[in-house]
Amino acid sequence: MEVIVYSSGHCASCKEAISFFEEQGIAYKQFDVEVNKEHFQEMLRLGGIATPFILIEDSAFHYFDRDKIKEVLMRTNA
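== Glutaredoxin family protein ==
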């Protein structure tokens, strides 16, 4: 399972999402779109407009929604 979090330093929801994945023991890749403009352009190409933008396999989240993310994680791990 691949989890990618496009984040920015000022984003409280980004920190919450990252804490969630760490608490759950879920490996993730984090791309800071403020630091790396290529990741920012990639996020835009994938449909993200703000951070956090979270990709879990074929599901995209435009904000951190703990319950919906848990649903996708359960389906993906089944």
